[in-house]
Amino acid sequence: MRVVLNFVAALAVAAGAAMAVAQSVDEQIAERIAPAGQTCMKGDECAAAAPAAAASSGGARSGSDVYSGHCAACHATGAAGAPKFGDAGAWGPRIAKGMDTLYTHALNGFNAMPAKGLCMTCSDDEVKAAVDHMVENSK
């Protein structure tokens, strides 16, 4: 009888250890496949925190700063058909359409260009300042 009880006790310990290992493995897998970040939609609590963080960074960024940090990725190289910074020939027809059109395209996206050039932390005024910077340097 004692042998049977020892055997049952050993099985219980082994089953508990196996469950702990399985739980540990499940936790490790969940950690490895967890999303790298999260989406924060307008109206969510996290959305209210983003503008406050940007505002605390010292105010509006200059057009040159926004261009260097975001726009240059495409406009310095001509990626996806973006008019290159300083290329008067490429910018001329665009400038002829008027600044309001350029602002609208920059803010809302146009052809291959995404809205705000993907600078979702940029205010509309900062994006417009970047457009002004590119236009002034591309005439």
Question: Could you give the topology of this structure?
Answer:
Blueprint: H1 2-32, H2 45-55, H3 63-75, H4 88-96, H5 99-108, H6 124-136
Description of the structure:
The chain has 139 residues and is mainly alpha-helical. It folds into 2 domains: 1-34; 60-136, Cytochrome Bc1 Complex, Chain D, domain 2. 63% of the residues lie in helices and 0% in strands. Helix 3 packs across helix 6 (124-136) and helix 5 crosses helix 6 (124-136).
What's the total count of β strands? 0
Helix share bin: 55-70%
Query: What fraction of residues sit in β-strands?
Result: under 5%
Name the CATH class of the largest domain. Answer: Mainly Alpha
User: Can you tell me the number of structural domains?
Assistant: 2
Radius of gyration, in Å, reads: 28 Å
- CATH architecture of the largest domain, by name, is Orthogonal Bundle
Sheet having the most strands: none
Protein name: Cytochrome c5 family protein
Signal peptide: 1-20
Pfam family, one: Cytochrome_CBB3
Keywords: Electron transport, Heme, Iron, Metal-binding, Signal, Transport
